[in-house]
Amino acid sequence: MKILMVCAEFAPWAKTGGLADAVAGLSDALCASGHDVRVLLPRYAHLPAPRGTRHTVEGVGGPFRLAELEPDQKAEHAGRRRARPRVFVVDLGDLTGDAIYTGDARDAGRFLRLSAAAAAFSAAKAWRPDVLHCHDWHTALVPVFQRLPPRATARSVLTLHNVGYQGIFAASVFAEHGFAALEQVLPADARASGDTNFLRAGLRAADRVTTVSPTYADEIRLPEFGMGLEDVLDERSGDLVGILNGVDYSVWSPERDPFLPQRYDAKDLAPKRRLKKRLLGRLKLVADVDAPLVGSVSRLVAQKGIDLLAAVMPALLQDTNASFAVLGNGDPAISGELRRLADAHRTRVSFIEGYDEALAHEIFAGSDLTVVPSRYEPCGLTQMYALRYGSIPVVRATGGLADTIRHFDAATGLGNGSVFRDADPQGVSWGVRTALGWYADQDVWSQLVRNAMAADFSWPLQVPHYEELYRSLL
Ligand code: ADP
């Protein structure tokens, strides 16, 4: 099948979070299964200059200038050696900038351009995709653009990686950026009191809707998780399916990790211990290598619940011998709290504020626990990464966390993590303390780590679900 992926993020070229890994992993796996996959991204200023021929496609708000990125420009991802999708970028003109998201109305202009260009590209004679696969609010308007000439006949799929981000802008953004024609074909309920909701429009217009875990697919039909879109999600439940994200183990496994100075696997964990020692030194934590190290790699936003972890840290520091390594950036209130904790407990709490791909790998490898206390979690990748590195996930039972982590039972030896129910400090505290209880018994812990490292969430397991979905549309 010919598939065009349209997205704001794509690893390794443009990444702020799981979206980039998920779309790249799926695209790679589809390529490996023999499909002709192409990707369309905005031409962010940080991207290398494309070297291939440039071409222009005509469409609403166009013309659009497209160029192809060279396949091997990101050497640090040398771990990827398989057939890879061809990646095209669309020129953003005066909206070009370094950041992937500006966080203001320029984002509307950028992603309107990307979406319009995707529809135009798909309708051009050169290469017509069977499936136009869009991701999140940034590209949710692609199927709406398909309602205007030149009409791309591709069937559309919209994947929801997080319904908490919807792309709500003043309705005037269409005219401001040269896309006034879109207003005539915009689904009526995508507009309310002068605003337009890009994601709602896409949910109405797409042929099929998917999300990134079965549990989240059910949750978002409810007011608690639907973020105001539960009505349309419930109406479209017949066209909505949850397919778990996969993991790219060529990058995210301790046997092959291109970022680690030492590799390891479940048969010999001695290198993991050395990596832990190295990490403790690097973070200036004085803990003994036998004491538990609790890690967390996360965007710092309310969704992720890191504030809950911060709230219970003082008591955990008092009652246990655990140390903490938190890598993240985002909300200043959450980072401020983590900084205060790190300042007050320099020898046992390290907070690294920022985005650091290499350090993320080192934390999964060097830690014993990975805490993911999300208030909601569409899929979540970090708990799946943590499993493979033998860092036991402590997660809240929601969305993809509930679909990937089973609470360990020391009596039967079954399970791969610590799962708590409530998104509150007591819940996190219980989850961490339960895991630390297992840590204290070496045999129990070894069993749990073996279970965790045996987990297989590789992409090829998920590809048949997407193939079935695509086929049902053609
Ligand atoms: P989300 O997409 O909601 O942020 P996921 O768990 O799906 O959550 O994916 C998060 C991805 O982003 C993982 O690859 C994780 O390692 C990475 N990540 C998050 N914060 C940071 C950070 N501060 N530095 C490096 N990587 C990070």
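^ adenosine-5'-diphosphate complex. Residues 17-19, 21, 297-299, 327-329, 355-357, 360, 379-382 surround adenosine-5'-diphosphate (CB under 6 Å). The chain has a mean pLDDT of 95.
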